[in-house]
Amino acid sequence: MEKKIVLTGIRPTGNLHLGHLFGAAQTWLKMQEEYDFYLEIADVQALTDNFHDPDKVHRNVFELTSDLLSIGIDPNKVHLFVQSQISEIAELTVFYSNLVTMARLYRNPTVKTEIAQKKTLFGNNGESVTYGFVGYPVSQAADITAFNGELVPVGEDQLPLIEQCREIVRKFNSIYGNVLKEPEPLLSKTPRIKGLDGNEKMGKSLGNAIFLVDDEETINKKVMGALTDTNKIKKDDPANPDVCMVYYYHKLVNSENVDNICKECKQGLRGCVACKKELALKMNEFLKEIRKKKEYYREHPEEVFETLKVGTEKAQQKAKETMAKVKTAMKIDYFERIK
Ligand code: TRP
Predict the structure, then answer these.
(1) Is 0.90 surpassed by the pTM of this model?
(2) Are residues 252 and 117 in the same domain?
(3) How many domains, the chain?
(4) Which of 38, 118, 222, 286 has the most crowded CB, counting CB atoms within 10 A?
């Protein structure tokens, strides 16, 4: 049986953190064994709200790719590629842009929320929002369909974008003939990973993230500053582990000891400082291998770009096949017809 095609993308705007790893990337590591997996470094999409800072996007293509390789994404199993180098995606975006109304794009909940959040860039009421940003769901539909993506692993916030893609596919097929496949979203089963400050979401811009490439000292410092039960004053006060971020992360990287930790904490037999020290130790142990690999890639950046180049070339072959079908369906294959 043919393997199903899975496609997902990630914007190169920062390093991977624990939220990415436990929320998404661990699923990718499993998927690379079972599916025909396309993993896109979405640099064009990153530019839609970072167009003024090309250095940031450039730097993070290296950072993100080497982070992914360090956690075990295997370029022999995954088509790991960079969006901007596949011109077919840009072409499809132009064709699809006729199939979406402006009203529909403005109504997209994900886009709407993001415009509202980016006041510095797009104005208080979104009055300076760019054409490119409003249209990024169209470009994302091109990301998916260029490779015939059937399953798209995403978080909940991305569902409106997948729905938009499905609408574009239906519209395309109804006008030009049955060429494109409607993708299905594959919702992440793991819940969002909380931040050091107890925020429901861990995020770079929230300043509450533990990055996979943080060094030992940084980890120690961050863990020491993590939110604990604020009602606990003295070291032998009993406390509630369920409101404590230190306990929360113990569950991720120190699962064999959590029952004990929970009991001791509730009985007031566990001081927060000792508990944090233990967590920092376990966290550093957990990140050791990843860090070592990252160190290697830092010393061999050319290897990272070579890997990305090979993956991009492979992905491009697939995009070219789609493009040929699309152009024929749209009757813009003039020179194919005279061959
Ligand atoms: N929009 C996604 C995010 O911000 C990233 C992305 C780009 C993507 N292209 C994609 C996700 C294609 C799924 C499919 O996380």
Answers:
(1) yes
(2) no
(3) 2
(4) 38
Could you say which DSSP state residue 3 is in? P
- Angle, helices 159-176/136-145, rounded to nearest 10 degrees: 70
Residue 86: which CATH number? 3.40.50.620
What is the pLDDT averaged over residues 7-24? Answer: 96
The reply to whether 20 and 95 lie within a common domain is yes
Contacts 24+ apart (CB under 8 A), 221-225: 222/196, 223/249, 223/276, 223/279, 223/280, 223/283, 224/273, 224/276, 224/280, 225/196
Show the domain range for 144: 5-193+302-337
Average pLDDT over residues 79-84: 98
pLDDT at 3: 94
Give the model confidence (pLDDT) of 37-65 as tens digits: 999 999 999 999 999 999 999 999 999 99
Is the CB of 110 inside a 6 Å radius of any atom of ligand 1? Answer: no
Q: Whose CA is nearest to atom 14 of ligand 1?
A: 8
47 Cβ closer than 6 Å to some ligand 1 atom: no
Are both 306 and 285 inside the same structural domain? no
Q: Is 49 in the pocket of ligand 1 (CB under 6 A)?
A: no
**CATH classification of the domain holding 228:** 1.10.240.10
What pLDDT is recorded for position 191?
77
- Asked whether 186 lines ligand 1 (CB < 6 A), one says no
